[in-house]
Amino acid sequence: MNIEEKKQELIRKSVEMIKRMRRRRSVRAFNGVTPPLEVIKNCINIAASAPSGANDQPWTFVLVKDKEIKSIIRKESEKTEKEFYEKRITKEWKDRLLPLNTNILKPFLEEAPYLICIFVQRYHFDENGKTVKHYFPFESVGIATGFLISSLHNLGISSLTYTPSPMNFLKKILGRPKNETPFTILVVGYPKSDYKPPKITKKESKDYLIIK
Length: 212
Prior knowledge:
- The chain is of the alpha+beta class.
- The protein is built from seven helices and six strands, in the order ααβαααβββαβαβ.
- It has helices at residues 3-22, 37-47, 67-88, 91-97, 108-111, 137-154, 168-173; strands at residues 59-64, 114-121, 123-125, 131-133, 158-162, 180-189.
- The radius of gyration is 19 Å and the shape is globular.
- The two termini are 31 Å apart.
């Protein structure tokens, strides 16, 4: 294969990847099929290979598969959502959420076989007990979460990023230390056969790509 053929092959593969990634959709209804635990752990290991500020690797992934813990998380999430929908949401925000069919009830937190609860480590302690600040921890964990979502999708596993606000209850339920802040709950599994995601569109490259 000459240089031009290699170039065309690379372009072809990149186009295929665009198509594959654009098929990714967030899922809010899961069936009872459980992906192998080893696969989920491997995807988390891929996420942990992401770049991070000063190589601090400021992330903790708590993989929840226990039904009782998932039930508690759902109960506390819905309590938070009730407060949000009844007292905090603005009309503009509510209008933006309408096409997504979201509401107070979050059954997917119990339906899905796994909840990957992702935390940001804002600092850590060295061997002498001294506090060591982490640089760009939220940005770093955001990148790692992207790695994780992409890995799952490329293996045919669906996910949903769920961020109830505030999320302090998650820290208490999972017994996380004071240097950690909840970032997101990644709900993981396979969609129900009759699940139809909301119809949405994605921007075209002309709307977000600038080349100079």
